[in-house]
User: Fold Zn(2)-C6 fungal-type domain-containing protein from Suillus plorans.
Amino acid sequence: MAFPFDTAQVLSPEAESLQRGFSELRQKMEAESKCVPDDRPDLMVEKEEWCRRWNKISSDIGIFIAAGKDKGVALALTAEDVARGKELVGIHDRFVEQLHALKEMAARQAEISEPQGAPADVSMEGEGDEEEDADGESEVPIKRPTRVRKAKHPAPKDDDSDDGMILHDPPCDRCAKRDTECFGPEKRGCTECRNSKQACSYSRIARAKGKASARRPMAASKVRVGSSLGSEPPITISDGEDMASASRISKTKPVVLIQGRKRKLADVEEEDFALADSGLSGEDLILAGKLRGVYAKFRTIQGLMSEVANELDMMRAHVTKKARF
Assistant:
């Protein structure tokens, strides 16, 4: 015999909604029991998230049961659900104690690492999410501690490092072309050139090159050449001399005498004269010729020493540049 549906008791929409929602909560509780994180110290974040989900589920179960009593709808848990709930409550309490211990340890480390008077900078999450569970007990706030970083101390400067930054005026060639401010450590290249690994006019190597160029022989307009010290008599080749001697004489470089030598040598050179008009004779004439030859050798040696000094400066600048970069 078929059941007469006209006599069936019809649930109200509110009662039907309560039953459907309560059934979903039971399914969520079963799912959370299967995804409990392992009790390991490296899974504290997962434990915190699981505790937050379990607090929400247990709180909703209490709300639904209380609402069912008010509406006259019987909402009950099975014996399996009750056993599962007690087990999850114990796991929740154990995880909360571990999180509290971790929070206190992080706070102590922050007080030790930070200077006195500064508050501990330990950010916690989950504030404001406190809810009451089915038994009326307030949820313990679960806060996530963050790692406390120690203050970084600047590395000690090298012995040859310079203190402070200065503005170069005028700027170097690179900064002048880029129309940017030229600044850098004192007695060092500017920051722009150092970052681009380019030579800077304010670097030590550039100053070394400038000093080397300053020690080079000055131009002919700034030095006293042999013509300014007195005209040398023309060199004539007799018929007995060969062309090889004449070639060696013609290829001799003009000797440059740098200003700043002793006054006595300059005075003697200014007294150079033509032997033909000197009025000397005999041994005096021979001695005067030897004197002129000695001065010629002296000027030659002086020129060679100047060339050697220039070569040394160039090699030193090259080695300094290689050693620097």
